[in-house]
Amino acid sequence: MLSLEEDVEAQALRDQGWSISAIARHRGRDRKTIRSYLSGEREPGRRKPAGPDPFEPFVAYCRARLADDPHLWASTLLDEIAELGYRGGYSTFTRALRRYELRPHCEPCQVARGRDVAIIEHPPGEETQFDWLELPDPPATWGAGRQAHLLVSALAHSSRWRGVLADAEDFPHLIEALDIVVRKLGGVTQVWRFDRMSTVCSPSTGRISETFAQVAKHYGVRSVLCPPRRGNRKGVVEKANHSAAQRWWRTLADDTTIAQAQAGLDRLAVKLDGRRRVHNDQRTTVGALAEAEQLRPPPRVVFPAEFDVTRVVTAQALVSFRGNHYSVPPGLDQAQVQVRHRLGADTLRIVTTGGATVAIHHRAPDGAGRVVRDDGHVAALERAVLGAFSTDRPCTHKTRRPPSATALAEAARLRGLSTAGPAAHVVIDLSAYAATAARLDRAPTDESRKD
């Protein structure tokens, strides 16, 4: 490959009458190379590819995906085409995106933005950052409404993060998701950092609530709140939120179940543990830094927060909760009941709106699809259903049954009423017309003529 300066010199020497062989000897190049540049077959500064471009078969797919979503991360798109057979690295892939000019231009994103950001040092095992991530437009099959809720937790020192999908952001769901994500991270740090969540503190004063103070004591941590309007103070978990939204939620299919979505999120988080880092002038990874943090083991049981959710009883005397169904006594069809479950307990209670406990069941694993029935409920439901049946022979639908005498008499009465009216009171005597017609039917005689 000739540089731009070599190409200019070769062209000048050619214009001065030098032969191609002389120029090649002067520059120490092959004659065919000099000839191709002088003829315009090759451009200076651009190396001729040694073979077919391995990215070319994926150009159409990448162009279509970036047309659908111009802000799709390159790393997310690389994950997709890697499953389709692409074997190139990330830097080679991004160069190909620029070379083929596949990403559409977005004018609003060109606005200059940014501000000074300080770097905060976090010693190993010191801090865990938590944040709720509201995800818009979840799949309709989830029944989550307009938003799904993801609790994201990140270790401030190593940047390892994990996330858990939750049904809501109230206190019991926060405690349940918090316990799960802490165990996914591998242990407990010295400090937990939160936004000013109403389930953790008073948003106006920033003082921790009494209920969450008991949670902090249970896990043996200090709870620290971010200053108001200082999102960068917990920048590690904010970056984790960004990764989860762009590399997982943005490409989630409409037919994905909650369990499949959670599994996909876990795979992404584990994959990002392989991100490269430089610590103390040594090359390492996020996963290696996280393993060296020496976190304290979490408590053996979760903090005993209690769920109290409203459900409607089905016609089969069943109540749904967390992917399973639990029986109640008959007679509560379409009635609202409360399902109460204490975290860490093996049982749950079903209570009426009046406060009466109608069922106690052993809780099945979430999403198991089991139907948990009490033998007494089954027997009572069978008695109620069988008692509603009749032993008489069912009616036949092909029997001929014409109108009865009573029905015919009633029909005649109705017909008589329908003919009643002003014309019904006019009496016409037809005897005179009959006598005249009789006389006209007979031939005239002599006596009739004398008359």
Overall description:
- The chain has 451 residues and is α+β, with helices and mostly antiparallel strands.
- It has four domains: 4-38; 56-108; 127-291, Ribonuclease H-like superfamily/Ribonuclease H (Nucleotidyltransferase, domain 5, 2-Layer Sandwich), CATH 3.30.420; 306-387, no CATH class.
- It is built from 15 helices and 14 strands.
- It has helices spanning 4-15, 20-27, 31-38, 59-68, 74-83, 90-99, 171-185, 210-219, 235-247, 258-271, 286-291, 375-387, 405-419, 431-441, 446-450; strands spanning 127-136, 147-155, 161-166, 191-194, 222-225, 276-279, 282-285, 306-312, 318-321, 324-327, 336-342, 347-352, 357-362, 371-372.
- The strands form four sheets. It has a five-stranded mixed sheet, sandwiched between helices. A four-stranded antiparallel sheet has the order 8-11-12-13, with no helix packed on it.
- A hairpin with a 2-residue loop joins strand 6 (276-279) and strand 7.
- Helix 2 crosses helix 3 (31-38).
- The model has no long low-confidence stretch (mean pLDDT 85).
- This is IS21 family transposase.
- GO terms for molecular function: nucleic acid binding.
- Residues 120-299 form the Integrase catalytic domain.
- Belongs to the transposase IS21/IS408/IS1162 family.
- InterPro entries: Integrase_cat-core (IPR001584), IstA-like_C (IPR054353), RNaseH-like_sf (IPR012337), RNaseH_sf (IPR036397).
